[in-house]
Amino acid sequence: MAELGMAVPSSAGLSIDRVTKRFGEQTAVDALSLTINPGEFVALLGPSGCGKTTMLRMLAGFETINDGTIQLANRTLASADTHVPPEQRNMAMVFQSYALWPHMSVADNVGYPVKLRGLRGAAYHHRVQQALALVELDAYADRMPQALSGGQRQRVALARCLVSDPSVVLLDEPLANLDRHLRATMEHSFRDFHQRTGATLVYVTHDQTEAMALADKIAVMKAGKLVQWGAPETLYRQPRTAWVAGFIGQGSQLKVAAGHPGKHLESATLMRGLNAIESERTQSVLVRPEHIQISAATASSATPTHNQLAAQVENVIFRGERYELTLRLPSGETLLAYHHTAPDLGSQVAVDLQQGWCLEPDQ
Amino acid sequence: MTPALNYDNKYGSDNKYGSQHRWLLSSLLIAIVMLSLAPSLRLLIEALSDLAQGRQSPLWQVLSSASTWRALWHSLYTSGLGMLIAMVLGSLFAFAITLTNVRGKSWLVFCFMLPMMIPPQVTALSWLQLFGPASPLLKSIGLAPPLGSPQPLYSAEGIALLLGIQSAPLVFLALRTSLLSLPRELIEAARISGAKQTQVWGHIILPVTRSGLIAGGAMAFISSLGNFGIPAMLGIPAGYYVLPTLIYQRMANFGTGVLAEMAALSLLIGLLALAGVALQQQLMNRSRFGLGGHSGRSHDFTLGSWRSLVTATLVGILLIILVAPLLALIISSLVPAMGVPLNAETATLNAYAEVVGRQGATWRAVNNSLWLAGSAAVVLMLLSLPLAYRLQRLPERWRGVVLSAIEIPYALPGVVLAIACILLFVRPLPIINVALYGTLGLIFIAYLARFLVVCVKPVAASLAQLDPSLEEAAQLAGAGPWRRLGSIILPLVAPALFAGGLLVFLLAVNELTVSALLWSAGNETLGVLIFNLDEGGESVLASAVSVLVVVMVASLMLTLSLLAPRLPKGVIPWQS
């Protein structure tokens, strides 16, 4: 950073404590608590209408809060009776629509936040030039935003964020308007941006792969409530509830008579639990497809060994590097598995489950 | 017959059916466009004919007359000043109502839009009742100036003030549209960049919406330029003539003998107005930045402790520009004669009894106007659906041409259209030998030409919103073109069609400018009646008629507001 001449960002930690937001009768965010460390890249993830954008707008100060507190490095930004206006929060935001002012050139757009902070003359131009260089748009300084492509506009919006050295950068579904190819490039820019600036980033998205790829930590939200808060690996390997397990990654949920929520199941326990009578199988267990081994059942040995399950191939989808199989277990449950060859539809296979993860039921 | 042949045959006949309906609709379209253009073309020919006579030609005579240039200057002065007043009032209301959290927004909008719908002669009359030595309101509260002191409104500035109030809603609408399409994110991005509320106004909102404001100003200028009622009621008594009143006065004094000169004068003012329209459309196009993002509701600026003060200011302005003059009008209608103060003993409903009870000119005018407006609304509703339907299927460029053609009679000042209609129908119609000049029929035809676009626009907007697959599905189900029009399209656009008809009725029933030149004894309209009563010194009776007119306008507007949820955006001018 020092050789770039940009000030070292004063990135700060955010503490969100039991924040509640009601719109009339409806509760958009319900007693949400999060602690975000300085310099962390955090994603708010959830289906549309889960309150994640409302949460982001409360952080920015565009919405007041009904209950709880938001603190930035021990300074109270918002509570039931205090509200620091957005312009005094020293934050920056990338909007889904980029929100570039159409009557200003690219350089004016980027320079606006530092101009408001009183920077003038050579120092101002130097700062704008550097911010544009960071997003590789220095050649476009005098263009109008209407003359840029979607990806370029997005990078101008990013440059405008980093020029003023904000404590927190907020991003509201910044990739939603871009095509798939451009998304991959922009994901890279965001990661790069985070590494270079070390800013605290809060990123709202409904796309779980985007969140997994970018964030240090993810807050999964549903109906205004925080369902799980953890690193991407934790969310994938140890989802708390059945709903999170279904929302993140692929996998199958089976009923077994073994284990307790929040515990791993080894292969043998899992198989025993699956073979129990139906009334005793009450615990939901998540089995990821990479933990399933498939071997062709020979016609003569129709009954597999006690460590294997018999299953019928119901559906086969070609995914390039592998085939995705839908299998029907004797219990009637379906199982998603990967395999390197395509078995015939309707054929019998032997299935070996290597591990599972026990889930809490949904409220 | 083989099934294949059978199918071919059926297909063939269907095809013929389809082309027949297209042919019918197309001829309707062409006929309407020709009829819309005919008066303007006739005017152009009349004004430019006899140019060969050199200095004797009417155009040259008009252009070399001092009174023409004086009236032109008066027109430009009053309209320009009126435009400035309209821009101040309109932008104050547009900014406050659209962007801040003032109280009672929908009532403020309704009351601010009301002056645009109240006929200008009623506005002028009500303000005349508010000021001056004979004002019953001032008499009643003992504030009337001594007899013989001048009426302050009989002046250029008085005309400009009322023109400004009448056209302020136009500025309000143009600016409000451009503010509503200002994405909320642009304001939020500025605020999170560190801009205070005042800086957001100066740096973002004003620059982005500037073209909308200027376009609104241009519209206010054009509308003031063509206004007849206000300069007629306030200017003629003071000998202060603008172009429309000059034409009216000449026609009133000299009749059809000066038609050629009047055509030349009309051409002058018509060109001025059309140039204004072109400028305004250009600016409207430029004001569209192609803004992305969530438009709709713009950011609410929280006024905090200022909220009550701002609300009170807006209400105060409305009290001055709307409530006070209307109150003066009502008081004037309740006194036995001008100059008598209103109190428990003098209050009387005689004027109303006279208007409603006596079967004189008053009743006849009301009758004429209701019939004219009602039948114009019905005929235009019948024409609008097939017209808009055919228009929808034209290529983009042609659609623009046709819409401009039917817009011309509405965009031209009413006086110009009236002169054009006189020119077109002053001689009996050939072949059938029917004379329209001097009959209600001429006013009716002028109304059809003038208000067609008012009815077509909401229907076209509604049709444009329809998913084309709705009609395609009906077509696949076996419905022919007429059947589709009747059973699929009509029910879906019916609210817009009805709103269009109501708007036509609202505008036509109060119309003065066109009928001021086209009326004749026995064929007065409501607008002419108020004007004539006031000119004849019967201010009390004129006030009573005006009060009834305002009540009718307000209730029609409320009816339209009730329809609003079922209409496409922008059909009802005072709702968004």
UniProtKB/TrEMBL annotation, chain A:
It comes from the Bacteria. GO terms for molecular function: ABC-type transporter activity; ATP binding; ATP hydrolysis activity. InterPro entries: AAA+_ATPase, ABC_SmlMolc_Importer, ABC_transporter-like_ATP-bd, ABC_transporter-like_CS, Mo/tungstate-bd_C_term_dom, P-loop_NTPase, Transp-assoc_OB_typ2. Pfam families: ABC_tran (PF00005), TOBE_2 (PF08402). One of its GO terms (cellular component) is ATP-binding cassette (ABC) transporter complex. Keywords: ATP-binding, Nucleotide-binding, Transport. Residues 14-248 form the ABC transporter domain. This is ABC transporter ATP-binding protein. It comes from Vreelandella sedimenti.
UniProtKB/TrEMBL annotation, chain B:
GO terms for biological process: transmembrane transport. The keyword Transport applies. It comes from the Bacteria. It is a multi-pass membrane protein. Keywords: Cell inner membrane, Cell membrane, Membrane, Transmembrane, Transmembrane helix, Transport. Residues 72-280, 366-558 form the ABC transmembrane type-1 domain. Belongs to the binding-protein-dependent transport system permease family. This is Iron ABC transporter permease.
